[in-house]
Amino acid sequence: MTYCVGLKMNRGLVFMSDTRTNAGVDNISTFRKMFTWTDGGDTVVTLMTAGNLATTQAVVSTIDERMKAPGDRTPSILGLPSMYQIARHVGQLLVDIIAERAGGGMRADSAFNATIILGGQVKGSEPRLFLIYPEGNFIEASDDTPFLQIGETKYGRPILVRAFDPGMSFEAAVKLLLVSFDSTIKANLSVGLPLDLHIYERDSLRRGMERRIRAEDPYFQTISKGWGDALKGAFDSLPDITF
């Protein structure tokens, strides 16, 4: 299991992912689940993955290979004219890889399934954010749904629903995400540190601030303890029931 969140903000896009993978309690590893590509001026794309590790690594490796392949092969995602076309391309690639590993058939319960959050910007258009399903179809973040989650979503969702505002600062957005991830990590052992962060500022068309947040990070420790103390204080301040 994993946990990844993408936020669509007025100022740009914010991505955060954990790095834990497991095949049982005695086989836990750390793998990067966030990847960013840019051509240095026209397109920036960030992708986060959840699901079967072999499938997601094959998707990322194929994208990398196509960027280095001769021009007569399938074009790279950075050569496509819009984020919508990039989402379609990645969705079809995901379908093809799952079908190949499943022996040519697609099943909703396939052990090879994976989901993807894809976001970025192509020069001349707005930043966009998509959630791509194993079947290759996708939804886009909107004013009504300004954030997208994949993986173990239920524990970290309530704070996002209550507190996320697309007009907030990047600093506040990172603080909110750390609370969401801290809640998830405490509730589910299949999600764990370190966390990867990427902040993309709209119209910059370049990689933004990237950071790996480890367990010993002082700011993360402050947020984790502070949020726990604040919840305890809020609980204690509520009136007791009368009988």
Structural account:
The protein is an alpha+beta fold and 243 residues long. Helices cover 33% and strands 28% of the residues. The protein has 5 helices and 12 strands. It has a 5-stranded antiparallel beta sheet, covered by helices on one side. Helix 1 (53-68) crosses helix 2 (83-101), helix 3 (157-163) packs antiparallel against helix 4 (170-187) and helix 4 packs across helix 5. It starts with a strand and ends in a 6-residue tail after the last helix.
Note the topology.
Elements: E1 3-9, E2 12-17, E3 20-22, E4 28-30, E5 34-38, E6 43-51, H1 53-68, H2 83-101, E7 114-122, E8 128-132, E9 138-140, E10 147-151, H3 157-163, H4 170-187, E11 195-201, E12 209-213, H5 218-237
Antiparallel strand pairs: 1-2, 1-10, 2-11, 3-4, 5-6, 6-7, 7-8, 8-9, 11-12
Helix pairs in contact: 1-2, 3-4, 4-5
Keywords for this entry:
single chain, 243 residues, alpha+beta, five-stranded antiparallel beta sheet, 5 helices, 12 strands, globular
Which whole number gives the mean pLDDT?
A: 94
The DSSP helix count reads 5
Rg over CA atoms: 19 Å
The helix-strand sequence is EEEEEEHHEEEEHHEEH
Tell me how many strands there are. Answer: 12
- Structural category is alpha+beta
> Are there runs of 5+ residues with pLDDT below 50, and where?
none
> Order of strands across the biggest sheet?
10-1-2-11-12
**Percent of residues in beta strands:** 25-35%
Shape, per Cα inertia axes = globular
Intertermini distance = 44 Å
Query: Helix proportion of residues, in percent?
Result: 25-40%
The major beta sheet can be summarized as: 5 strands, antiparallel
